[in-house]
Design goal:
alpha+beta; single chain
Amino acid sequence: MITIFNRAELFVDTNSEAAAKVWSTLKANGIEYEMTTKQDVAALRKALHYYQGMSSTTAGMPGSYYGDTPNYVYKIYVRKADLARAKELCSL
């Protein structure tokens, strides 16, 4: 079991394909991992600016807001004991 006391951060990125490659490599090699996904704060601030910039005559969010894809930060943790092997396997 991975806990906050025995884990090490292996991977941090906004690219979902890269994150999938890392966790699939870990899974294929039997290395236990934990992954967290959080929305990037900068994307939330951007949405807030769009919302605050709307006038009373604007119906809904501006068109450019709908075209923007949300940004997520992917973090993958492994046990401290497995960190060196995981880095080698994932070429990190």
